[in-house]
Amino acid sequence: MLRQLEKLSLEADGRYASAKELEFLKNYLAAAEQRISAYEKIRDAEEKILDQVEQQLRAKSPHIFRKGNHDYSAVCRRDRKHVLRLAAAAMLFADLDALRDGFLLWYRTIIKAFRDEKVAQVTYQVLPQAVNQVLSGEEAPLMQPVMALTQSILGE
Q1: Does the record carry Electron transport as a key word (predicted)?
Q2: pLDDT tens, position by position, 15-63
Q3: Which of 13, 85, 91, 133 is the most exposed place for a label (fewest CB within 10 A)?
Q4: Exposed e or buried b for every residue in 63-92, given b needs 16+ CB within 10 A?
């Protein structure tokens, strides 16, 4: 959304924007109230969502956060929290490009460097389900493209 506004501002400099150029803004504004509501619900249920994801991951593999003698559950939770917050912001601003380019591609590199692909694959299959449980039927579709992008990049 913000990138689209910036692009429109540059392209329409000195002239009125066309109806076609304004279409994305109309679409965004039509769903703005739902986006804000969804964002607030995710924000307010963050710990519940993270607890549910962790519980499901541990049910699949009790030692999923262990490497050798080290328990990395706190680090993994911090990272899931960061992903959730950035995903919610991407939904709020309708900006998948910023999420993908500014975070997900970088974070995928970190996941691969630490050889956590299997954990990431399971995590980003479970996360959308937990998020959808706190959203209404009208709000969930707004978050779906963000979760799909996150899963496709981090859960390869």
Answers
A1: no
A2: 999 999 999 999 999 999 999 999 999 999 999 999 999 999 999 999 9
A3: 13
A4: ebbeeeeeebeeebbebbeebbebbbbbbb
Residues in a beta bridge with 71: 66
Count of other CB atoms within 10 angstroms of residue 154: 23
Nearest to 144 by CA among 5, 28, 8, 136: 136
Strand (E) positions, 13-155? 66-67, 70-71
Q: How confident is the model at residue 3 (pLDDT cuts 50, 70, 90)?
A: confident
* Residue 102 burial (CB count, 10 A): 13
Domain ranges of the chain: 1-30, 32-154
Q: Are strands 70-71 and 66-67 parallel, antiparallel or unpaired?
A: antiparallel
pLDDT band at 2 (very low <50, low <70, confident <90, very high): confident
Phi-psi region of 70 (alpha: psi -120 to 50; beta: other; left: phi over 0): beta
Domain 32-154 has CATH 1.20.1050.40: no
